[in-house]
Amino acid sequence: MKHKNFLSLLLTLLLLLPISVSSVYAEDTDFGIYAESFLALKKDSLGSVSYQDMVTNYFAKDPGNGEEWYIMTLTQTRDDINYEIYRKSLEEYLKTTEIPGATQRQKEALTLLAVGGDKDVIADVVDETVGKLGTMSYVYGLHLLNNGAPSSLYTPKDLVDAILSLQKEQGGWAIMGDFADVDTSAMTIQALAPYYDTDPEVKAAVDKALDLLGEKQLEDGSYFSFGSPNPEGTAQTLLALACIGKDGTEDERFVKNGNTLIDGIELFKTDEGTFSHTMGGPADKTTTGQVMYCSAGYSMMKNGEGSLFICDNLREAETDDSIDTHRGDDKKIGVKTILYIATGIAAAVWTALLLIKRKKKLNAYLSVVLVCAAAVFLIHSINIEKPDDYYSGDYVITGDTIECDLAIYCNTVAGKKDFIPENGLILERSTITVGKGMTALDQLAIAARTYKIQLDLKSDYVAGIGYIYEKDFGDVSGWMYRVNGEYASVNAVNYVLNDGDFVEWLYTVDLGNDIGNNYTGE
Fold first, then answer.
1. Residue 9 phi/psi, 5° resolution?
2. What is the DSSP letter of 316?
3. From CA 360, how far away is CA 508, in angstroms rounded?
4. How many Cα neighbours within 13 Å face the side chain of 302?
5. Other CB atoms within 10 A of residue 6 CB
6. Beta-bridge mates of residue 503
């Protein structure tokens, strides 16, 4: 009996080995470990052989990919990486690329500053972007000046005063409108943090904002911001407290029914150990990135290592002599192949043990065959659909139908990347047949399959169309829709279409202001 139990356990472990690898990062409950785990997960997902390889052969080749926080986190958590090739690439990108969105330019400049970049390039960004996109362009401008970025127009005090003047009556800050929002308030505190202990006016403003954030926290420890519960505002609040030297899990203002900010963040954890923008939703790279660097900042506070946004280890320009650009073997084995191999190994081990024990009964060996056959059948049954199969053209609709037109525009970022249409048109006005009672989101999904347009839906909202994603071009960039020329006040998943409606999806880099949809706050 003992041998049978051992064999069963061994077979189970071997069969689950490839699957368990993906969830190894979720096992440690220490919130500070997420930074290290997600950096490792990113490296492994790219097939990089080392962090140096990842920086040199991935980030340096596409410095404007919106993942600058991986570099910022690496600069604050590791000291064994040479950034010279990445630095040169990012400098060239900032010099030659028209980057939409002031804050995105500032984040790239902050990253360049952290890796020892050209101060003249950084100075140009500061002088050309501060105040150009409301509160957040002051916030990131202050981060740059806090780290010694030169400017011919501004001093840190100028930006501190400007930020304080933008504080809302109830205590926080907002991207636009009269109502403070969680994310903006927390991120503003992060920029003001260096002055918290020395400037009474800053301290009073920050404390008032923290009181507001404490009041807005939900009973489960999380926050409701920008229309839905999500972990981003919760993570930013934890980081804001860390930046002023406070542990958010021990501040009674941020503990509700025994639930801390970390409890609120982990409500959005996926089975793979990454994070989703919505509770129970799929993994989201932007959300996971925010949790990663907030985790790094929290860990730095706990270990007495300073603030995430103060780059104490600013680098001088390095040479690239020591950089290993070898990428290793680029060929990757598919998941199904790994599972088949694991099944074969399990069968071989099981059979070998039976032979060692001199088992002669046919039933013993038949059990091996049956179990392995079942495993092979299960693996074979997993449906990994190819793009050509998914985008099959016709979409079958049963019941009554209506016809509605649809168009998809990306004029605000036309030609900004190789895959983005120069004319800003992803789909010209086309008639889409939908079922009666279907929504604007249903129509978009049908059109995507019909016209072979890449579409990424995160639960009940649109994350990306045509590989253009939310926040690709700044913190306030993303997709919005309007029906018959009017922007809707509900999510597309809730907007039921009428016969003859004309739905337009448009990409914004300025929270709708650049496409005629003015944000009015919460």
1. -65, -45
2. P
3. 71
4. 16
5. 11
6. 406, 483
Contact 229, 218 (CB under 8 A): yes
3-state secondary structure of 453: coil
d(CA 277, CA 255): 22
Beta strands in 211-346 (DSSP E): 223-225, 228-230
Angle between the 156-165 and 200-216 helix axes, to the nearest 10 degrees? 40
Helix (H) or strand (E) holding 335, with range, is: helix 335-356
Residue type, 369: V
Task: State the Cα–Cα distance between residues 199 and 285, nearest whole angstrom.
Answer: 37
pLDDT in tens, 262-315: 999 999 999 888 999 888 888 888 888 899 999 999 999 998 888 899 876 544
Residue type at position 220: D
What is the Cα–Cα distance from 311 to 146, expressed in whole angstroms?
Answer: 9
Does residue 452 sit in helix, strand or coil? coil
Instruction: Please report, for residues 35, 65, 131, 137, 316, the alpha-carbon distance to residue 107 in angstroms, rounded to integers and kept in the order given.
Output: 19, 12, 14, 10, 19
Does the domain formed by 388-515 have CATH 3.40.50.150? no
Q: Which residues pair with 230 in a beta bridge?
A: 223
Q: Which of 279, 207, 186 is nearest to 475 (CA)?
A: 186
Quote the CA–CA distance of 42 and 45 in Å, as a whole number: 5
In the structure encoding, which two tokens stand for residue 391, read together?
Answer: 């985008």
Rounded to whole angstroms, the Cα distance separating 248 from 359 reads 61
Report the distance separating Cα 249 and Cα 238, nearest Å: 8
Helix-, strand-, coil-residue percentages of the chain, each rounded to 5:
50, 10, 40
Q: Residue 463: helix, strand or coil by DSSP?
A: strand
Look at the block and give the residue holding tokens 């049956």: 370
Each residue's pLDDT tens digit, 383-406: 444 444 444 444 556 678 899 999
- pLDDT, tens only, 236-259: 999 999 999 999 999 999 999 999
HEC sequence for 151-206 = CCCCCHHHHHHHHHHCCCCCCCCCCCCCCCCHHHHHHHHHHHHHHCCCCHHHHHHH
Contact 174, 135 (CB under 8 A): yes
DSSP of 215-250: HH--TTS-EEETTEEESHHHHHHHHHHHHTT--TTT
Do 55 and 81 touch, CB atoms closer than 8 A? yes
Neighbours of 201 (CB within 10 A): 11
Greater confidence (345 vs 245) lies with 245
Phi, psi (deg, nearest 5) at residue 330: -80, -10
Query: How wide is the angle at C-alpha 64 spanned by C-alphas 58 and 66, nearest 5°?
Result: 90
Only one residue has tokens 């495993």, namely 375
Ramachandran region, residue 437 (left: φ > 0; alpha: ψ -120 to 50; beta: rest)? left
Task: Assign 487 to helix, strand or coil.
Answer: strand
- Give the domain ranges of the chain: 1-27+335-384, 45-166+314-332, 388-515
